[in-house]
Predict the 3D structure of the following.
Amino acid sequence: MLKLFTDTDTDTTPQIAAEYGYSLISMPYSIDARTVNPYEDFDSFDYHKFYDTLRSGVIPTTSAISKERYISYFEPDFAAGNDILYVHFSRAMSNTFAAMDQAVAELREKYPQVRFEEIDTKGISIASLVIVREVGDMVKAGKSLDEILSWADREVDKFATYFFADDLRFFRRSGRVSGLAATMGSLIGLRPIIYMSPEGKMVSLGTEKGRFKAMSRLADEVARLGEDISAHHICIAHTDAEDMARELGKMIEEKFGKLNIEYVVVNPTAGSHCGPDTIGVSFHAKNR
């Protein structure tokens, strides 16, 4: 039997996990000196409250989970003899995967008959969610593990993600964006345009002045790179900025016609790094 795993950094909620049969690994964040494990310490994400807290000046921190915690997630399926496929957020963005590798090595030694495979989405938030859903669709269609892995080898780098941040304080603190100058852009209306690279890192492409121009730039990137996007999942994400997200959706549909767009609230762990009023889009593309 094949068991699917993903993590909360992929924007997978318990409802989406149940739709496809994923087990959900909770990626923690800390706020006001308290560590929170999404969908373990709460049932539903009160995103208005969370992002309003960030607007008040609070900047959360995030942390890796331990080898022992990974073992607690995976061992029941190893012990049951189930093969495992873990579709996860980018290895390049966290050292948590060093602990995971240690856990898997220990479990493989204990249960050598079990097959453990992973798909690195080379993204986070909706950059991962579109791939989580595509893999889930293939499992539902009866595709084998090897067929899914072969698809991932070809297709992961063809899911592009572009977004802009409204407030640079969060990215400055996390240091996770390559090429993002230590500028006071948030004070003069500049919005950094960021994409997920083929290496699974967030890279700045420069800035646009004002939200409208930033959203127009995202729509232009979809038009420039989009490939057969109506046949694949397309997600627009926001951090408590649904009106802007839907405006971006309208801009994209003006270029492509009616699309089946999923609007997604960014999970709190990823949202801790980008802050409130961030908007992004993930779609099937010629390349990243």
